[in-house]
Design a protein that fits this description.
Helices cover 59% and strands 6% of the residues. It is mainly alpha-helical. Strands 5-4-3-6 form a 4-stranded mixed β-sheet. The protein has a two-stranded antiparallel sheet with strand order 1-8. Pfam families: 7TM-7TMR_HD, 7TMR-HDED, HD.
């Protein structure tokens, strides 16, 4: 039978390890398959920094690409070099001249019927009009005016022949009218006002702006802009070791890098590139599993939690590869901080930081300006983790988002100042991708709910909701067992303060403390904190029956918690808050009254298990100390100190803390916190009165 049990255990362990290996290999294969396979430029460099690598010479002839700023300036110059195109509308002049003649005659007859100098006035007026249309009338385009002058150069197209002119040599309607007014000052016999009035009604621009042709010429000019500025010959020294990366050398290095990564000149073997990626990803993810095995064995042995972590890691790297593949305008649109937020809220800060650094480092091999990318994402991820270290309210989500964005902006300014050396050259339009990334990071919170349901983990968000005393189960506890509820609140305060000081999940221990005694709701009157002075129901029971009722609150609590879908991580506090200690009061009473009777000691012992984490260990101590402190007749500093020391020593003697990672130094800190907090508490614990025996009640 023993051999059979050992074999089953052996195969179970082997199967578990095989599953982990399969999950690891699957994650590695998926990540490697989706990563870009282009060969990467092996040098890291920054403008304004010293070139720390060997002398860089050109391995072939290549053109130096213009920067975005240079292309933008060239485009601006090309557009400015194109003159607006105008054409003559041949219909305007004849039409307006004929209309002028008719209008002149009608108005002259109505206003000057007896005048005999019509011919002279008409000849002068029609002469002005013909002169204006012969030279050309134009309406100036505000788009082409300059600050210094309203006039600008144009191309006048006539009979498919273009002529360059300046609008200063042409008439506008207002300029033509002003010219006529000036000339008429010399003619005293003419009807000046009449001539100007009729002329004004027939001055229409006959030079029309051809927007389509102008746009076509501008587009051609932009298309003819060269994307390159100069050539680098094969064997030419680009930069020497120790030289500062200047603007000019930076452009050459950037052009070489693009040629290296985007063309087939140095493509190498894709199989070798894939092998290199496989080595790097395998090493990184293996180190992650080693971290889990050494520091978070509870996660390592849990299939679902380990699968969740590998899924988050793979998902982020797949998103990065997709962004590179579609040539996203900025990789900083990707919400990289979603990884540390999810891992922090589902697990802890140390694991979140470790995984975030691992994912960012892997990504750094495949993104442009890898060092800058790594710096941005690691600092922002650290801000995300630190800002939600103690999650107490939902407003911290927005505070966290603000701090992440602030970290991005500060990092951006620092890097920009290093690159540009000039505040005015900072590219402020590069900030919006960071803003969008932070907004997308808020998707972590609905994703956490999905992961909780899929993988059976519990986030701080859920713990925060459970720790609300308006939770239906806690309200039921407060109604049915008010003394137990008050006891649980005090235990929560003690345990939370202690775990916060020695390090641990304060929200988890508080939630566990609030629920650790919910099993007492099934029989509240059998527990001393809920008893009234009228009587003690234990007086009617045997010691064995009393012990069973007291012990049963653990199993009842587990049953109630599972029925109300309380997470397992909280139920662990119910299981372990008494460990496997004895109900000593009833045990000692039985021995005193029946010294010769043979009995099973397990009747008086809690089922266990013993606490297995800092949080569960601290809760056990807080529960025992708070309950026992109520029995002090005249609590003072000495009695409280002796009580705390005695209870902690007793738990250690009973080996209740052996599976926790609480150190002796932690215990001293915990004791000091308990003593300080109990100084302000004054609760007299009612004693059990069974068969005339008076004693300090058992902590239950």
């Amino acid at each position: 039978m023993l051999i059979k049990s050992s074999l089953l255990r052996y195969f179970r362990v082997r199967h578990a390890n095989l599953y982990r290996i399969m999950m690891l290999v699957l994650c590695i294969v998926v990540v490697v398959l989706v990563l870009p396979k282009e060969k990467r430029f092996k040098y890291e460099y920054e403008k304004g920094k010293v070139w720390m690598h060997p002398d860089l010479t050109s391995p072939f002839n290549f053109a130096v690409e213009k920067t975005k700023e240079e292309l933008k300036e060239d485009k601006k110059e090309a557009i400015n070099s194109v003159l607006p195109v105008y054409k003559i509308d041949a219909r305007i002049a004849p039409m307006q001249v004929e209309a002028f003649k008719i209008d002149f005659d009608m108005k002259w007859k109505s206003r000057f019927p007896e005048s005999a100098d019509r011919a002279e006035n008409f000849k002068t007026a029609i002469g002005f009009l013909e002169q204006f249309y012969d030279k050309g009338i134009i309406n100036l385009n505000n788009h082409y005016r300059t600050k210094s002058s309203n006039d600008y150069n144009i191309t006048l197209v006539q009979n498919n022949v273009g002529t360059n002119l300046n609008t200063a040599t042409l008439y506008t309607p207002s300029k033509a009218l002003e010219y006529a007014k000036t000339q008429l000052r010399k003619a005293n016999r003419l009807k000046k006002d009449f001539i100007l009035e009729v002329l004004e009604d027939h001055l229409q621009a006959n030079l029309v702006f051809n927007e389509d042709l102008t746009q076509k010429i501008e587009d051609e000019a932009i298309e003819n802009i060269s994307l390159y500025r100069g050539m680098v010959q094969k064997g030419e020294l680009i930069i020497a070791k120790g030289d500062v990366v200047t603007e000019q050398s930076y452009k050459k290095i950037e052009s070489l890098r693009k040629q290296y990564e985007q063309t087939g000149l140095f493509s190498g073997s894709r199989r070798i590139v894939t092998l290199g990626q496989f080595i790097l990803v395998s090493m990184s993810l293996t180190l992650l599993l080693a971290f889990l095995f050494i520091f978070r064995k509870d996660v390592y042995i849990d299939y679902r939690q380990m699968t969740l972590i590998l899924l988050v890691v793979s998902g982020m790297l797949i998103s990065l590869s997709w962004a590179i593949k579609i040539d996203l305008p900025s990789l900083y649109y990707i919400p990289y901080c979603i990884v540390p937020i999810i891992i922090r809220l589902l697990f802890d800060a140390r694991l979140a930081l470790n995984i975030h650094i691992l994912v960012v480092i892997i990504a750094g091999f495949f993104v442009p300006n890898g060092f800058e990318f790594v710096f941005y994402q690691i600092t922002a991820g650290m801000a995300a983790i630190y800002s939600i270290q103690s999650l107490l309210r939902r407003s911290q989500y927005l505070i966290s988002a603000f701090l992440i964005l602030l970290t991005y902006i500060i990092s951006f300014l620092g890097i920009s100042f290093i690159h540009e050396g000039n505040f005015s050259h900072v590219q402020w339009l590069d900030i919006p991708p960071f803003i969008l990334s932070v907004l997308l990071s808020l998707l972590a919170y609905p994703l956490i709910y999905v992961f909780e349901k899929m993988f059976g983990v519990t986030s701080d968000i859920t713990l925060m909701e459970l720790s609300n005393t308006n939770n239906p189960l806690l309200r039921e506890l407060a109604f049915k067992a008010p003394g137990t509820f008050q006891h649980s609140m005090q235990v929560a305060n003690l345990a939370e303060a202690a775990i916060y000081k020695i390090g641990g999940n304060a929200l988890l221990v508080r939630t566990g403390a609030l629920y650790h005694d919910i099993g007492k709701m099934r029989a509240p009157n059998y527990f001393i904190e809920n008893q009234k002075k009228t009587g003690n129901p234990h007086d009617e029971l045997t010691y064995e029956e009393s012990a069973r009722i007291i012990i049963r609150h653990v199993t009842d609590g587990i049953e109630i918690a599972k029925k109300n879908r309380i997470p397992e991580v909280v139920i662990d506090f119910i299981r372990t808050h008494h460990g496997n200690t004895r109900v000593d009061y009833f045990y000692q009473s039985f021995l005193k009254n029946f010294p010769d009777r043979i009995f099973d000691e397990q009747i008086f012992r809690y089922p266990g298990p013993v606490p297995f984490s800092k949080e569960t260990g601290v809760l056990m101590l807080a529960d025992s100390v708070e309950a026992a402190s109520r029995s002090l007749k005249e609590p003072d500093a000495r009695s409280i100190e002796n009580l705390v020391d005695r209870i902690v020593a007793y738990k250690m003697e009973q080996h209740q803390l052996v599976d926790t990672d609480i150190t002796l130094k932690d215990l001293e800190t915990v004791k000091q916190i308990f003593k300080q907090m109990l100084m302000s508490i004054y609760h007299v614990r009612i004693e059990y009165q069974i068969s005339g025996i008076n004693a300090i009640p058992e902590v239950v």
